[in-house]
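Example record

The entry below shows one chain as it appears in the dataset: sequence first, then structure tokens.
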Amino acid sequence: MFALANWQLQRGLDKAQRMQSIDSASNSASYSLETLLARNQDIQDLPISFSGSINPQHVFLLDNRIKQGRPGFDVYVIAQSDTHYVLVNFGWVAGKQMRDDLPEVSLPDRLNDAQGRIVLPSDNPMVTETATHDALWPKVIQQIDIQFIEQVLHAEVLPFVITLTQSNEQFIRDWQPVVMPPEKHYAYAVQWLGLGIAAFFVYFFALRARLRSGLKKGSHEQDE
């Protein structure tokens, strides 16, 4: 429990540091893709202005995305700049009543100076990918797995995502880099710490009572 309290505390500190980094990045001008690739520093959450062509037929739908209690998908497409392939998140669309009836989206053939943010996808080992390498599109995926996407497209893809942030009538783009605020992690840390302290005192008093019982039993045996 003490270890979990420390883990939640560190998570809160990391979130606070990231929010400060996002605030700082928000005050800077958008970077080009080439400028970001040339940076030796962390590019997570940095603003980007991107231009490139896309294939609107090759759409990835990230499953189990909930907005305001409604199930839906995040729409991802590979975009090609002059030198690189990169995955672009166009935003959220609602799902239909029948799960097998996938939403239809209208995508342009090209992005020109599209505004977005850099997002580094995380791997969840508990999630099992169900999409296949067949020729059927769109593909419903369970998480952003760059290696899987490279295998499907037979192309090398940059290890991050450009999440578009400009308002759009077709997609919901409420970019939330920090879903759980640091304060909630701190609250969880206090809860785990309190449980740990309570468990420690329960153990302490139970052990003391057991030792006293043993001493009294030994004293009676000596008297007999």
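Notes for this example: The chain has a mean pLDDT of 85. The first strand starts at residue 47 and ends at 67.
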